[in-house]
Amino acid sequence: MDLYREEILEHWQNPLNFGEMKNADLVIEQVNPLCGDEVTFYFRFSISHPELDSGSKKIPKQVRNDEWQIANGQWRISEVSFTGSGCAISIASASILSENIKNKKISTLSKITGEDVLKLIGGPVAPARLKCAFLSLEVIRKIR
Amino acid sequence: MNRRQDFPILNRKINGPSYAKASEGKKPLVYLDSAATSQKPKQVLNAISDYYQKHNANVHRGIHTLSVEATEMYEAARKKVADFVGVKDPAEIIFVRNATEAINLVAYSWGRFNISKGDEIVVTVAEHHSNFVPWQQLAIQKQAKFKVVPINKETGEIDLKALGKLLTKKTKIVAFAHVSNVLGTINDVLHLSLVVRRLAPQAIVLVDGAQAVPHMPVDISEIGCDFYVFTGHKMLGPTGIGVLWGRRELLETMTPFLFGGEMISKVSLEKSTWNELPWKFEAGTPDIAGAIGLGAAVDYLDKIGMDKVREHDVELTKYAIEKLSKIDGVIIYGPKDVKKRSGVVAFNVGSIHAHDVASILDSEGIAVRSGHHCAQPLMDFLGVSSVARASFYLYNSIEEVDRLVEGVLKVKEVFKI
Question: What class has domain A6-141?
């Protein structure tokens, strides 16, 4: 079965960016109630902002509270990691997607489609397994 | 038992090398998911089609010939179902949508009026969500205590000692499954009912028979419970028809679950009175074709004999456990003794997620269920997030179990374990 290619199994066994992140700027949990798969994503953001040093990893409270909504489009994902348990498809797609979104601007995340995710993980997935493949995409949809 | 010719769906060939080319499927279907829903024999499909083509009319209210025929067929189905499970009074057989609805009916119509603050509801950790969530929610609404009996992890049996300790003078409802949908454990429901009667005589006992009635002889009159529920689609019948059996004395005191047509006796501007049993609980036009289909399923099972059905399950289960347990890395859940389990084999392959197991088996044409099987409390209790489950029925063969075993080897090959 070509879904379980070498690459997918490699990601399943040794997922990239796996592990908890201390002091993350944002933590998002996502559960697939159908099968109990769950992932938790941790993000740290940086921003090019006139009042901040470019690429600063520390977000001043002031900016987070007041300008978050306005400026979030400019924020970049500087660090990302995830933990969780699930099937090979959901873990591999979390691994691949986490790598893919590194250094991306938040404003561009909404452009990632389900099609893109399928391309990234390398091919069509049975309808019943789409939920597994898209579990992490749902996390990314929640970044605002 | 060569009944396969009665089930046209079993001739299907499914799945090619990839889902993209699913139309070019070439693997013969091995259907091992009957605990989720069984396939339906031609006899059942024909009975439904025959009803719609020749007798279709609404029941219980028409004077015309078709209506009389439809009513007779609907009520004959009720009688067949009653006989099938050892119920003498067909009026105690209430047609509902499924086992879930039957349990909810009891939770609403009995529970809401009889449970109050401080009362206790007891269920087991092995229950399907359908026999867990309605009671949990009732307990929350009524500020009652919700108590969960553990099971023995090795044997899958309900922990009788723990049950004994949990039963008190305040226990009002005790609910448990006849057969576990995950572990396949056959509970000694008579013994359990007796324990409840002795230690909490004021409590009512509800038995979820969804996995029992399709697979073994069941005589409700010998169980000693107050309510017994099961569903048609797991026993060769169509989806959409289920059964609630209740003791007449209890059903008579209960308020209807749904209000409307069919269930009334007299309606005035100020008040209404309720129809007789069982119609009091069958508001609106019922699933007439579904009941007739279920009646045909009962005929089919009767003709084979439930002892034979059970024997066949045992044979396949025994063989499957023997073969699967020889595969390195395969973990099988539930009772070791096949006499104490139904035709259900839940398993995992190493640390591979059950969905991956099911996907690869599917690519080999083998249908198994995977996931938490609507029994999350049980999964937590067993310390697993999901399991794969093969379940057998009268149309499955030893050769199909061999295909399952080959499929599991294929899973290991793909995952290189």
Answer: alpha beta
